């Protein structure tokens, strides 16, 4: 298979972790007979330094013309970088918002998977962890409360702020379809999360999800209220496969789910739109405090590359191979400093990439 991949190393540890993910992708290409063509573009602080803006239109055009985009991270030290005290549209993070908008990415997928070898980092009790958990949170990314009309005004002498939460059925349908499609590639279980006992938007959400579910008879669907879901995540996380939910609920639940996995350096993510073109990136930021030291954990980015193979290219076998290689390296006791524990072998960013590529 021939695939065009846009690489966005970005700032901080971005270039180091993207380099390791590319190393693993190159090994996949070699082993399975694919051709990956890479084009690098600048985004974030490095683009501001070079072009005065966090993302140029030329860079967007390159990303749009590719089959998938793999991103490291953007941004400098919060509160203490040359890119901090500038207009919001000229900050590194504005590049991120622009590329998500330009690529029309409305679905965000964040897996939360607990590796047996990293169980000690999980804040839950062993009897709750049980055999571990392996879920994805599918979050709607471009609608709902964060994109609704808002204003603050004085009403009868009292300051009053209003936010609005709007979803139309098309917005719900397209994310629901994505959720069911992902479930079909997994254990075929969808938990649709809403607040239908209170919110109209949730009632519509429930109705549309039910309609979409009719097209996926193999998938088991459960509706769950968001407050219950927040509890279930820490009481019995093993019950979940795909959690399908709207923007704000997904924002909160995905952070909760990632916390119970223990390490930020392990968490991948994908943002998808109508087409197969997706944006894949680790859930963490640019970690300027450890940039350039060859100690960052590249696993979140390498697992994001695996998601890219699975969701943009339908290369499930190859994605499985990367995930198995990561599990193998952890089983053999190799750890970057962020996940290091007694008796394990500490290794650098480069070494971790080498080890995973070798085991693919
Ligand atoms: P961060 O995720 O960059 O770092 C938080 C902590 O986790 C730091 O101590 C860091 O060293 C550590 N860490 C993060 N990733 C790691 C890895 N792969 N291996 C080992 N340790 C890791 O969050 P922050 O410090 O709040 O933000 C730093 C910059 O990143 C800011 O400019 C912020 O805006 C930006 N940011 C970018 C993205 C993105 O590009 N998608 C996301 C979040 C934050």
Write out the distinct hetero groups bound to the structure.
nicotinamide-adenine-dinucleotide
What is the subunit organization of this protein?
Answer: single chain
Helical content (DSSP H or I, runs of 4+): 25-40%
CATH topology of the largest domain: Isopropylmalate Dehydrogenase
Query: How many separate helices?
Result: 12
- The total strand number stands at 14
Structural class, judged by helices and strands?
A: alpha/beta
Q: For this structure, what is the CATH class of the largest domain?
A: Alpha Beta
C-alpha geometry: globular
Mean pLDDT: 95
**What gyration radius follows from the Cα positions, in whole Å?**
21 Å
Biggest β-sheet description: 10 strands, mixed
Summarize the structure in short.
With 360 residues, the protein is of the alpha/beta class. Helix content is 39%, strand content 21%. Helix 7 (200-213) links the parallel strand 8 (189-194) and strand 9.
How would you portray this structure in words?
This protein folds into two domains: 1-108 and 269-360, Isopropylmalate Dehydrogenase (3-Layer(aba) Sandwich); 123-260, 3-Layer(aba) Sandwich (Isopropylmalate Dehydrogenase), CATH 3.40.718. Helix content is 39%, strand content 21%. It has helices at residues 14-32, 45-51, 57-64, 92-102, 126-129, 169-184, 200-213, 226-235, 247-259, 299-311, 316-331, 349-359, and strands spanning 2-10, 35-40, 68-73, 107-113, 134-140, 150-155, 158-163, 189-194, 220-225, 242-245, 268-272, 278-282, 334-335, 345-346. The strands form three sheets. The protein has a ten-stranded mixed sheet, sandwiched between helices. β6 and β7 form a beta hairpin. α1 runs parallel beside α12 (349-359), α6 (169-184) packs across α7 (200-213) and α11 crosses α12 (349-359). The longest helix has 19 residues, at 14-32. It is globular, with a radius of gyration of 21 Å. It binds nicotinamide-adenine-dinucleotide. Nicotinamide-adenine-dinucleotide binds at residues 13, 73-76, 78, 93, 96, 264-265, 281, 284-290, 296-297, 300, 338. The site of nicotinamide-adenine-dinucleotide has 22 residues, from α4.
């Amino acid at each position: 298979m021939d695939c065009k991949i846009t690489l966005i190393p970005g700032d901080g540890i971005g270039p180091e972790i993207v380099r390791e993910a590319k190393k693993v992708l190159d090994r996949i290409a070699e082993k399975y007979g694919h051709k990956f063509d890479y084009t690098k573009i600048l985004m974030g602080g490095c683009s501001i330094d070079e072009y005065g803006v966090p993302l140029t239109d030329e860079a967007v055009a390159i990303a749009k013309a590719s089959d998938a985009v793999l991103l490291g991270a953007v941004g400098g030290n919060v509160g203490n970088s040359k890119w901090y005290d500038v207009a919001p549209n000229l900050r590194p993070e504005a590049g991120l918002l622009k590329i998500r908008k330009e690529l029309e990415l409305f679905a965000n997928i964040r897996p939360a998977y607990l590796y047996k070898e990293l169980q000690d980092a999980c804040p839950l009790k062993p009897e709750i962890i049980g055999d571990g958990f392996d879920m994805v949170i599918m979050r709607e990314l471009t609608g709902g409360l964060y994109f609704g009309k808002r204003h603050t005004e004085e009403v009868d002498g009292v300051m009053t702020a209003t936010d609005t939460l709007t979803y139309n059925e098309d917005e719900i349908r397209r994310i629901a379809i994505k959720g069911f499609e992902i479930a079909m590639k997994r254990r075929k279980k969808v938990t649709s999360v809403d607040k239908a006992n209170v919110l109209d938007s949730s009632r519509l959400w429930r109705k549309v999800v039910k309609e979409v579910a009719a097209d996926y008879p193999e998938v088991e669907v459960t509706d769950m209220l968001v407050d219950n879901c927040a509890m279930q995540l820490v009481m019995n996380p093993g019950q979940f496969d795909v959690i399908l939910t709207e923007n704000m609920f997904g924002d909160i639940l995905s952070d909760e789910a990632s916390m119970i996995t223990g390490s930020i350096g392990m968490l991948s993510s994908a943002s998808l739109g109508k087409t197969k073109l997706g944006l894949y990136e680790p859930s963490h930021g640019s970690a300027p405090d450890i940039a350039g030291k060859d100690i960052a954990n590249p696993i979140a980015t390498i697992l994001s590359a695996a998601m890219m193979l699975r969701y943009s290219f339908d290369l499930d076998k190859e994605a499985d191979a990367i995930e198995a290689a990561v599990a193998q390296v952890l089983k053999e006791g190799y750890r970057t400093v962020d996940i290091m524990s007694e008796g394990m072998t500490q290794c650098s960013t480069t070494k971790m990439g080498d080890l995973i590529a070798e085991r693919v």
